[in-house]
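Example for tutorial group B:
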């Protein structure tokens, strides 16, 4: 019955759906926020002014999904997490937080796979661009023979190109560009760099005056 009810809610016009989500799930939804025909049912949802989630995106298993002012998640994204259900999986990760947080004007475009078994933070004005990128916070620890999870952090004004893979433990400094098809797996600490390769490394220094790094709106026209 719960699945049928949620399917019914998904198909409702947004003004009615917003009222029901606020009333029944206690979600915090600004009047100017918007969710399309999307399956978005985290434990807690916070959407600031003018934030948006596109059609056919799925979000399930998360404790928290938070979109800052004018932050956007596009169409056909698959956003999931292993929930905090008391099982043996990830029991050694006592501070694990199945969360996705987008700061003001951050953007995830279309057709990405986002695994939020541990927290993923996307900084202000950062863009997960193109298609088919994967942000994967959990994997198997071969040495310990158990599931493990680590957070991913993407700094302010970062641009992640198409078809990139970010593994748990990745941290990208602000004002960075990630080349298409790159693999990131560690903490990177030099801003104003182009990172590329498998695994990614800094391959070029970037001009700090690039307009992308100083824009005042999230959407690039």
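The residue assignment follows.
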């Amino acid at each position: 019955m719960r699945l049928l009810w949620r399917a019914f809610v998904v198909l409702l016009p947004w003004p009615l759906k917003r009222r029901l989500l606020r009333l029944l799930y206690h979600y915090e939804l600004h009047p100017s926020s918007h969710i399309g025909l999307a399956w978005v049912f985290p434990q807690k949802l916070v959407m600031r002014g003018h934030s948006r989630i596109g059609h056919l995106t799925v979000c399930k298993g998360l404790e928290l999904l938070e979109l800052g002012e004018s932050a956007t998640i596009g169409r056909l994204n698959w956003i999931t997490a292993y929930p905090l259900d008391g099982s043996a999986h990830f029991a050694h990760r006592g501070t694990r937080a199945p969360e996705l947080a987008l700061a003001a004007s951050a953007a995830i475009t279309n057709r990405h796979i986002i695994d939020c078994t541990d927290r993923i933070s996307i900084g202000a004005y950062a863009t997960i661009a193109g298609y088919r990128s994967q942000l994967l916070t959990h994997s198997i620890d071969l040495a310990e023979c158990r599931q493990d999870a680590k957070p991913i952090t993407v700094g302010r004004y970062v641009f992640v190109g198409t078809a990139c893979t970010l593994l748990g433990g990745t941290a990208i400094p602000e004002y960075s560009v990630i080349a298409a098809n790159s693999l990131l797996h560690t903490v990177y600490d030099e801003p104003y760099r182009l990172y590329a390769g498998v695994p990614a490394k800094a391959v070029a220094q970037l001009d700090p005056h690039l307009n992308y790094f100083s824009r005042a709106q999230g959407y690039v026209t």
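The two ends are 43 Å apart (CA to CA). Compare this with the pattern of hydrophobic and polar residues in the output above.
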